[in-house]
Structures are given as C-alpha cells and as structure tokens.
Design brief:
Layout: H1 17-21, H2 28-34, H3 38-52, E1 56-60, H4 70-73, E2 78-80, H5 85-97, E3 101-107, H6 108-113, H7 116-124, E4 131-135, H8 153-157, E5 164-166, H9 171-183, E6 188-191, E7 213-216, E8 221-226, H10 230-243, E9 248-252, E10 255-257, H11 261-271, E11 274-281, H12 286-297, E12 302-307, H13 318-324, H14 329-349
Parallel strand pairs: 1-2, 1-3, 3-4, 4-6, 5-6, 8-9, 8-11, 11-12
Antiparallel strand pairs: 5-10, 7-9
Length: 356
C-alpha cells in the first residue's frame, strides 16, 4: 500500500482520449469547461478518470448534475441510486470489494450523517476503495438553508479510521485532488462546494495528499486555511495584514487526514501564533485538528475562525453569508490580531530559563 504522504495526482495517460482533448489546466479555456465550482470540477475529473480506467463508476445521489455527461458517455458505469444515501454507500462498498473504484456523489450533510453507519462499518472498517464526494460543503449551499449545509462533516469523517479527508482550495486543486483520490488505494472523502469560488492555483501546481502548501511568507502569524473560498479569504487577509505591517504566513491545509504535522509545528515554532480558517463548525474540524498538534508538541496561541456552534439561519448568496457568520477576510484579520495579542501575553508570562 502506498504511503498516505506520497500519493500524488497521476499524470493523464499519453494517447488517451483525455490527453488528446485536454487544454492547460487552470487556463481560461479549462475554466470555461470545468467552471470555478469545486463540485463541477470534481465531477469533470471523475469522468476523465473513468475514460482512462474501466473500473471507475459514478454512484449518483440524485444531485441532478447532468451538465457533466458521465451518464451519456458511460451509461453502464453511471448508477442513479436516488435519495437513499445508506443504500448508495453500501452498494459502492460492494463494487469496491469486487475490484471496482466507485465515486459516491451526494450532499455532504446527508452523506456524513444519514449514511454514517455505512461509512463507518462498510467503508472504513473494510478499508474499501470507495471515493466519497460530499457536495454543498459548509454553507456553500446558500439559500438551501441548514438542512443542506454541511458544517459537521469534517468532524465526523476525520474521526473514522483509515479514511483520507481532503478539502481542496479551488477548482484546479479539486480536479487534481480527484485524480489523487483515484490513485490512493483506500477510502477517501473529498469535500467540495456548490458555489463558484475564486481561483487560487494554475495548472503547474502538483497536488500531494498529506502535504500542506505554503502560499505566502510571514514571520508574525500563520493563517492555516482549508477549503474552497477559505484559502482565498486567508490570502486576502494576508494582504490586509501586510498593509498594517504584519507578516502572515499562509498554509493551505488541503488534507485533514493525514495531517501535515511538520508544516503545522513549523508554523507554531517560527511565527508563534496560529489562526485556523474553515467553512465548518469550529468544533472538531480544522481548528481542532491543528490545536491538537500544537498543544501536544509546541504550545502556541491558536485562534479559530469558523461557525461558532450554531446553525446558519440567515441564508442567502454564499459570498454574502460569509461576513454575516464571521468567515471572511475581515474576520480573519481580527482573529490574527487576537492571536498576536495572545502571543505577546504568553511571552510576558513565560518563566525565565533556569541558570545553572
């Protein structure tokens, strides 16, 4: 079995139908086809993967994503299961145990909760080679309201043994992460959003499971962000902090399991203050994962940006909801100032070293 920390997105096979029609990933032509929605980019990647490997199936949870022609191009490997998440995961596990590679597509909230028992005992326990794609992640569903918002899924999925958990930053990273998920020999959860979000990466970026990406340098505080829109908001916060003379390092923590502990500990040691950013409840997600590492090995202030133990009852367009619930660049800047104040307080109260 390949190491979790070294699985990368495989190259598209030369001479394949995908390679023959491909345009540069992340180019305007590529965006026109794949869009800036991580959900759509993931579905396009699944179709491209399936064109190169007849073991790949799309198991559909009635999302109506028929703009991606998997059902037309490969109808015998497209299974429309309807609104039956537990059955869908069970069927996908059966496919995986017979040597197939199923991608399960459903709403993240329903996949993580309605099918939680099947995720635990069918997929995780058997280490079944099932690729779970949770759409409408976070509050990206916007007006769909709390029934369709998935703000607890990371806490659930990262607690299941053997499951790799990936939350990409944009559509380019999502496309490459989907190929990496396909190459990984075991269960993977891919968390994708509904809304189109700003582009962070170009096509020359190489995705690697378990390897955080440093997107900006700084020595005062580290912003550790994960997920579509959130990484971009962290980069925008970094620009605003720079205007105030504060240097912020930015880490894209695209993989929640396995964690890049080395990158997290380096951030804590070298900047002395950490802010985590996620479109998820602050309970059990990115903030908790980072804090667990920092507390155990290199204590430093960790301030979490995310949903503070509540449902999103004020709903609307995604970009308008983010500031309402404190998950935009302005909120990240405020969190960075709190982290810096805590860092200074810790330094004032740190005991003097013993003189021998």
């Amino acid at each position: 079995m390949a190491s979790l920390a070294t699985v990368t997105a495989p190259a598209v096979p030369a001479g394949s139908a995908v390679a023959a029609k491909s345009v540069p990933i992340g180019s305007p032509e590529w965006i026109a086809e794949h869009t800036l929605s991580t959900r759509t980019a993931c579905r396009m990647a699944q179709l491209d993967v399936a064109r190169t490997d007849e073991r790949v199936f799309s198991v559909e949870g009635d999302l109506g994503q028929y703009s991606v022609p998997f059902h037309r191009d490969l109808p015998r490997r497209f299974l429309q299961m309807g609104i039956a998440e537990a059955d869908m995961v069970g069927a996908a596990t059966g496919l995986a145990l017979r040597g197939k590679i199923p991608f399960v597509n459903s709403f993240a909230a329903f996949l993580a909760m309605r099918a939680c028992e099947q995720l635990r005992l069918d997929v995780a326990y058997h280490r079944a080679n099932v690729k779970l794609v949770g759409c409408y992640a976070g509050i990206s569903g916007g007006p769909a309201a709390p029934t369709h918002h998935a703000v607890e899924d990371l806490a659930i999925l990262r607690s299941l043994p053997h499951v790799v958990v990936i939350s990409p930053a944009d559509s380019v990273e999502t496309y490459k992460a989907t190929w990496a998920a396909y190459a990984h020999p075991g269960p993977v959860y891919l968390r994708v959003g509904r809304a189109e979000t700003p582009q962070v990466y170009c096509g020359d970026y190489e995705f690697e499971i378990g390897k955080a990406v440093r997107l900006g340098e700084g020595s005062d505080v580290t912003l550790i962000a994960s997920g579509s829109r959130m990484v971009w908001e962290a980069l925008e916060a970094r620009r605003q902090l720079a205007g105030a003379g504060i240097g912020a390092r930015v880490l894209n923590l695209h993989t929640l399991k396995p964690l890049d502990r080395a990158a997290i500990l380096a951030a804590a040691a070298e900047t002395g203050a950490v802010v985590t950013v996620e479109d998820h409840t602050i309970l059990g997600g990115v903030g908790c994962a980072v804090a667990e590492v920092v507390l155990a090995e290199h204590p430093a202030p960790v301030v979490r940006v995310g949903l503070c133990d509540l449902f999103c009852e004020e709903v609307g367009p995604y970009e308008e909801m983010l500031p309402v619930y404190g998950m935009d660049a302005r909120a990240i800047v405020a969190a960075a100032h709190r982290a810096l104040a805590l860092k200074q307080a810790m330094r004032r109260h740190r005991p003097a070293p013993l003189v021998r």
